[in-house]
Design a protein that fits this description.
This protein folds into four domains: 4-144, Rossmann fold (3-Layer(aba) Sandwich), CATH 3.40.50; 154-326, 3-Layer(aba) Sandwich (Rossmann fold); 329-404, Helicase, Ruva Protein, domain 3 (Orthogonal Bundle); 409-469, Arc Repressor Mutant, subunit A, CATH 1.10.10. The protein has 19 helices and 18 strands. It has helices at residues 13-26, 37-46, 75-84, 100-108, 121-151, 162-174, 191-200, 219-227, 244-247, 263-275, 301-306, 312-318, 332-350, 360-368, 374-388, 401-404, 426-444, 449-456, 460-469; strands spanning 4-9, 29-34, 51-55, 57-58, 73-74, 90-95, 113-116, 181-184, 209-213, 228-229, 241-242, 252-256, 277-278, 287-288, 292-297, 321-324, 357-358, 393-394. It has a five-stranded parallel sheet with strand order 2-1-3-6-7, sandwiched between helices. A hairpin with an 8-residue loop joins strand 13 (277-278) and strand 14 (287-288). Helix 2 (37-46) runs parallel beside helix 3 and helix 18 (449-456) crosses helix 19 (460-469). The protein starts with a strand and ends in a 5-residue tail after the last helix. The structure holds adenosine-5'-triphosphate and magnesium ion (MG).
Length: 474
């Protein structure tokens, strides 16, 4: 461990020496000494110190007690010097019992700790450890923050498809505005990830990101969860409570599954969005809040509006800026990248074993699958396959059965009288096979229809007809 550098400044040589001895005794301190302000300043300019332990009165005989005496320097002067010169260190001030108030004043001016005279080893050790502990916590806090920021930075959203690139651009453009953002997309497409990227890349990143699942809180508790309540607002309200909007003050509130928000709360949310203030349950006073609202839904809000389940006015208020995350099956570039990413991720967990990749046949199935659970499902499938596989590469048999059976979405294989067996109809199965072959050829050729037709050994018009007939998206 590197020893910490300490500068002891006191005009009394005995005290300096005694403190220096104590420090050496406590261990791991590299001690320098100065006899007053001037020598202290010289040393501080020359090198960095982790700590400065400094007497309150400097450069004067202690019996001179007139603080206004010219030429007299005090610890505060040294603090001023540190501030002006932008030198950062941890300043510990020593003062006599009678001068406790002065010592305290030094704390107010930026000293880290105050040490009363006579200085004992026990006190000194305690004070140093307290500062060190604080510094360590501060350091950890910084690391954690950095970690969180990194985790939700763009680099953490694994994507290279043009659709996702556009989403990154939108995030970048709107991140610092207070405009409400609505994120839509199927389950597991990364809505929450995008919401966090918006927050952690914005000027609000040092303030809270509060996520609420609108469908996950009982309706009768929702209002108080959102806006808080005052004491006695209802039977169980024995004390007042802050709502989530207040907790998110200065930051972002993420309203997940907004489509599940009950009607009465929709009215109240609309009011908050319009007035930027909330009213706790049972209170007749409003509180200003500065919260950016990001909402997400897997449901089609427009349809809910038409069905009368979502307020139209709120819909228009929320739907100012919508980020639509396409389903994974429409982002094949991302699938490949995500597969590599998750293999990398789980390789760390299953170490020392390593999976190198996915066999071409297994990759084919992964690319053809519908992924109704999107990225979340893909991650689970890769994790499972990595545990199951014996070799270096994930094989077809390591994939769950959903990927291996012929799955054509709504055009699934006709089962035989509910027995769950494959239909033996040549006609039906031929169509399914044909569709798979076409999709595969299109995948292989990156959507080039001429090349695909060539591979399939059919004419281009025949291919175009079949693409239309089978409703294949290209
Ligand atoms: N592009 C991506 N890169 C890396 N991980 C992703 C990506 N998209 C989603 N994920 C991961 O997939 C999982 C699901 O993402 P998230 O929770 O953001 O989805 P969601 O759209 O909110 O889903 P739901 O509708 O089910 O709440 C998370 O573990 C997330 O980290
Ligand atoms: Mg979610």
């Amino acid at each position: 461990m590197v020893s910490k550098k300490v500068l002891v400044i006191d005009d009394e040589p005995e005290i300096r020496t005694s403190i220096s001895k104590m420090l050496e005794n406590i261990g791991n301190y590299d001690v320098s000494q100065a006899d007053g302000y001037n020598q202290g300043v010289t040393l501080l300019k020359r090198r960095d110190f982790d700590f400065v332990i400094c007497d309150y009165y400097l450069e004067e005989a202690p019996e001179l007690s007139d603080p206004a005496h010219e030429g007299r320097r005090i610890a505060l002067d040294l603090l001023d010097f540190l501030k002006e010169s932008n030198i950062s260190t941890n300043f510990i001030v020593i003062s006599g019992q009678a001068d406790a108030a002065k010592g305290f004043e030094t704390l107010l001016q930026g000293a880290a700790e105050y040490l009363p005279k006579p200085v004992t080893k026990r006190h000194l050790q305690f004070v140093l450890h307290r500062v060190e502990r604080y510094l360590e916590l501060e350091h950890q806090n910084r690391l954690l923050r950095k970690n969180i920021e990194d985790r939700f930075s763009f680099s953490n959203i694994i994507a290279k498809s043009p659709a996702m690139e556009r989403i990154f651009e939108v995030i970048d453009k709107v991140k610092d505005y207070k405009t409400t953002v609505l994120i839509t997309g199927e389950s597991g497409t990364g809505k929450e990830l995008v919401a966090k990227a918006l927050h952690y890349n914005s000027i609000r990143k040092d303030r809270p990101f509060v996520a609420v699942n609108c469908g996950g809180i009982p309706e009768n508790l929702l209002e108080s969860e959102f806006f808080g309540h005052v004491k006695g607002a209802f039977t169980d309200a024995v004390r007042s409570k802050k709502g989530l909007f207040q907790e998110a003050d200065g930051g972002t509130i993420f309203l997940d599954e907004l489509g599940d928000l009950p009607m009465p709360l929709q009215v109240k949310l609309l009011r908050v969005l319009q007035d930027q203030e909330i009213r706790p349950v049972g209170s007749n006073e409003s509180i200003k809040v500065d919260v950016r609202v990001v909402a997400a839904t897997a449901k089609d809000l427009g349809r809910l509006v038409r069905k009368g389940e979502f307020r139209e006015d709120l819909y228009y208020r929320i739907n100012v800026l919508t980020i639509v995350i396409p389903p994974l099956r429409e982002r094949l570039d991302d699938v490949r990248l995500l597969v590599d990413h998750f293999i990398e991720k789980y390789n760390k967990e299953i170490a020392p074993r390593r999976v190198l990749g996915v066999s071409p046949e297994a990759m084919q199935l992964i690319l053809e699958y519908r992924w109704p659970g999107n990225v979340r499902e893909l991650e689970n499938v890769i994790e499972r396959a990595m545990v199951l596989t014996d070799g270096d590469y994930i094989q077809v048999e390591d994939l769950p059965s959903e990927l291996r059976i012929i799955d054509e979405g709504d055009e699934s294989v006709p089962a035989d009288h509910g027995l769950g067996e494959l239909s033996l109809s040549i006609k039906k199965n031929a169509r399914i096979l044909e569709k798979r072959l076409i999709k595969r050829a299109l995948l292989k050729t990156g959507g080039n229809k001429t090349k695909a037709a060539h591979m399939l050994e059919i004419s281009l018009p025949a291919l175009l007809y079949k693409i239309k007939d089978y409703k294949i998206s290209v």
